[in-house]
Design brief:
Layout lengths: L1 H15 L16 H4 L15 H4 L11 E17 L17 E13 L2 E8 L3 E5 L12 E16 L4 E21 L5 E22 L4 E8 L2 E12 L13 E9 L2 E9 L4 E10 L6 E6 L4 E6 L5 E11 L4 E10 L17 E13 L2 E12 L2 E7 L5 E21 L1
Antiparallel strand pairs: 1-2, 1-20, 2-3, 3-5, 4-5, 5-6, 6-7, 7-8, 7-9, 8-11, 9-10, 10-13, 11-12, 12-15, 13-14, 15-16, 16-17, 17-18, 18-20, 19-20
Length: about 425
């Protein structure tokens, strides 16, 4: 039973600190609707609106005056499990594990001087929600998994010359997670466990943009690692014969972990009066997840578990078509690698490599306001799972997930 509790705690703590659900791992790249239409190609160089604070704060030097941006993303992942030889459990294949999520973004920037701009973003950089029913065969490994984050990112940007701009920001991030699953108490019966936890983490981001010609610029952006000391609590619903003690005891746990740094290189070019082209490459150092060390509240080690995540790359290309002075049309493609190896995939994280197909449009409603809409469909590779927890009484979940994701994004930009 101690192994059962440890396994649940480790999963919950991993959820609390994951960093890129529609990008690698658990990260959310959905940080603007204007970028959604291009699959976020050129995000570190395009500097189209105040959402550049997240992607590259140096981009604020390309925006005049004061601007506010609000965006909302509706994300619907699909994760349909097909059983292929699971053992030691009874139940059905379960419903679609994906659940509709709403992800907001807010940005505000202003001009301190013609060459110095300041801004702040409030967004959701990481998130996860999967939920099965009480009868699915993997309920002893995963039931509900939910991660919510809020990131506050004050930033400043300097225009060094007509060609060169720099920007920097501070990230203050709060994460909250809730996980549940069934627990096998052997002859005593079946219960449940709920894990909740939260933490603040701190980091920074840097960016630069170089304007090669009037129509072409390149952007580089870096986000630092974020160290978090996680604090969580496990609460068990036990059968009558199981005391609140030992492995089934409610209790506190902590773990220290580093979120990986990311580095992006983007290019944006207006090739004609009607057409823009853009591209992006982003590297994420997921290999920092070598192990997860979980401690009791008295400082003793519960366990050290290998994570074995891999570094990932994301590649994207996009185009804009200026239909008129008021209307801009967008399209984009992207390939996004997953950080999790097949042999370490769990029912809580059934993702895999994904391909993006995105479309969008921008409409200038008034001389000072713009409305953006973007849509993306993500073609996700089938994800095999072979999670053997028979020794812990949780069964062997063996099968394959058929995954996809649909995203609809809306954004309003206002210039003061």
């Amino acid at each position: 039973m101690e192994k059962v509790e440890i396994k649940i705690v480790m999963i919950s703590l991993t959820l609390l600190v994951s960093n890129n659900t529609q990008a690698a791992g658990f990260a959310l790249i959905e940080q603007s609707a204007s970028g959604m239409g291009n699959a976020y190609a050129g995000a570190a160089a395009i500097a189209e609106d105040a959402s550049t604070i997240f992607f590259n704060p140096a981009g604020m030097t390309y925006i005049d005056g004061t601007q506010a941006v609000g965006a909302l993303h509706l994300i619907k992942p699909n994760a349909e499990f097909e059983n292929k030889g699971s053992l030691g459990v009874m139940g059905d294949e379960g419903p679609n594990a994906g659940d509709l999520a709403f992800v907001p973004n807010f940005y505000f920037m202003t001009e301190l001087t013609p060459s110095i701009k300041a801004g702040i973003s409030i967004n959701v950089p990481f998130g996860l929600k999967t939920e099965y029913d009480d009868k699915w065969l993997g309920r002893f490994q995963a039931d509900k998994s939910e991660l919510k984050t809020i990131n506050i990112n004050p930033s400043i940007a300097f225009k060094i010359s007509d060609q060169l701009s720099f920007g920097a920001g501070l990230s203050l991030m709060r994460a909250e997670a809730t996980l549940t699953r069934s627990v096998n108490f052997g002859g005593a019966g079946v219960g449940d466990v709920e894990i909740k936890g939260d933490d603040w983490g701190y980091g920074f981001n840097l960016g630069t943009i170089y304007q090669f010609t009037t129509d072409t610029r390149v952007g580089l952006a870096y986000r630092s690692k974020v160290k978090q000391k996680l604090e969580g609590e496990a609460k068990f619903t036990r059968p009558v014969l199981v005391p609140n003690a030992g492995a089934a005891a409610d209790g506190d746990v902590t773990a220290s972990i580093n979120l990986p740094e990311t580095f992006s290189a983007s290019i944006f070019s207006r090739v004609t009066n009607k057409w823009d082209v853009m591209a992006d490459v982003t590297f994420t150092r997921w290999s920092r997840f070598e192990e997860l060390r979980v401690l009791r509240d008295n400082g003793s080690t519960l366990t050290v578990t290998p994570q074995n995540w891999e570094n990932t790359m994301r590649y994207s290309i996009g185009v804009n078509y200026h239909y008129s002075d008021a209307v801009k049309l967008r399209a984009g493609l992207a390939y996004d690698e997953e950080a999790i190896k097949d042999e370490f995939r769990t029912a809580r994280i059934p993702g895999n490599d994904r391909k993006w197909l995105s479309f969008g449009a921008s409409y200038k409603v008034t001389p000072v306001s713009v409305l953006d809409v973007g849509y993306a469909h993500l073609f996700v590779n089938n994800a095999k799972i072979n999670d053997d927890q028979l020794a812990m009484g949780n069964g062997l979940v063996r099968g394959e997930y058929k995954n996809s994701v649909d995203i609809l994004s809306l954004q309003y930009t206002h210039n003061f």
